[in-house]
Design goal:
There is one protein chain. The protein has 321 residues and is an alpha/beta fold. It folds into two domains: 144 residues, Response regulator (Rossmann fold); 132 residues, 3-Layer(aba) Sandwich (Rossmann fold). The protein has ten helices and twelve strands. Helix 5 packs across helix 6 and helix 7 packs across helix 8. The radius of gyration is 23 Å and the shape is elongated. The structure holds alpha-D-tagatopyranose. The site of alpha-D-tagatopyranose (T6T) has 15 residues, from helix 2 and helix 8.
């Protein structure tokens, strides 16, 4: 009788453990803005979740960039609940610290993707080091590489201009700083201005048109994200200066790839948003199921499109589809 009881208890224990191991995990993704880059992160995260037998829920895509718009959506997502792990693109490295800290204090582990909090160093204790990792591009390195290539495109001399989005988003400030670092290596290049378009393409276009009027001898432009670059090349095109003003752009949207083929843009840096999404789910899953230590920074690389390689079969997977 006693043996039977022990056997039953053992079976119940195994069944309970099995049930726990089988609990379907749910990830939540909170994007930064409605755009093809953020959608690619979702696609990568969804694919990886499916592969691992987990599921993904997605917060509403903000129609514009900024904490004011993102935080209420994020809070609604958390209020709805039903997820084990958060993947978030903070739209401000300062303003998102407090709301995310509150969410983390509820016991929700998280990674930040694409952008980070504070200075991005989650390895030292600080008021922003609670995310498990930053998973995204090395933006300073990318900005630096863009700068070197743009310098070469304009023969290492002349005026250049940068159109960017926000002064408090780590992604674009990293690109700006890396680019300016590269420019310091070219004493004959003059940076005539930096404008912030707040992630509005029409603003980028208007700002670029004004710079072209003020500096008709402008030689090069760096557009630090898809809205900046798309607005910038359209302004140059409208002024009839395509080909004369060299344009280095960031983000491989089909629009920018077509512009590269048409000679309206000269260089396109592609990030790896699909991989960013995959890696976020993969590390979250390892953390939840195996208590794995997540590396504080996970950095997939980037890829440069030029007119020489844009049609190569090996390049096509880098386009944001
Ligand atoms: O360039 C990406 C992203 O990396 C950046 O943080 C914000 O803008 C994009 O989403 C493109 O619109």
């Amino acid at each position: 009788m006693k043996r039977v009881l022990i056997l039953v208890l053992a079976l119940l224990f195994i069944a309970a453990s099995f049930g726990f191991a089988q609990k379907k995990l749910t990830f939540a993704y909170m994007p930064g803005i409605e755009d093809p880059f953020m959608r690619m992160i979702e696609q990568g995260a969804a694919a990886k979740a499916k592969e691992l037998g987990a599921s993904l829920i997605v917060g509403e895509y903000p129609k514009a960039w900024g904490a004011d718009i993102q935080v209420p959506i994020l809070e609604a997502l958390v209020a709805r609940g039903g997820f084990d792990f958060l993947i978030v693109v903070p739209t401000s490295n300062e303003a998102l610290i407090a709301p995310l800290k509150k969410i983390n204090a509820k016991g929700i582990p998280m990674v930040t993707t694409d952008t980070f909090l504070g200075n991005g160093d989650y390895s030292k204790a600080s008021n922003f080091s609670f995310p498990l990792a930053y998973i995204g591009t090395d933006n300073v390195l990318g900005g630096y590489e863009v700068g070197k290539r743009l310098a070469e495109l304009i023969g290492n001399t002349g005026k250049v201009y940068m159109n960017t989005t926000n002064p408090d988003a780590s992604s674009v400030t990293g690109r700006r700083d890396g680019f300016l670092k590269a420019m310091k290596e070219f004493p004959e290049i003059q940076v005539v201005g930096i404008d912030y378009n707040l992630d509005v393409q029409e603003t980028a276009q208007r700002q670029t048109s004004a710079v072209l009027q003020k500096h008709p001898d402008l030689k090069g432009i760096f557009g630090t994200n898809l809205f900046s670059a798309q607005g910038a090349y359209q302004a140059v095109d409208n002024a009839g200066l395509s080909g004369e003003v060299k344009i280095a752009s960031w983000d491989a949207t089909p629009d920018l790839i077509q512009a590269l083929k048409d000679g309206k843009v000269d260089l396109v840096l592609a990030q790896r948003p699909y991989q960013i999404g995959q890696l976020a789910v993969e590390w979250g899953y390892k953390f939840l199921t195996q208590k794995a230590t997540v590396p504080k920074k996970v950095i997939p690389g980037f890829f440069f499109f030029t007119r020489e390689n844009v049609d190569a079969p090996g390049s096509q997977s880098y386009i944001y589809q």
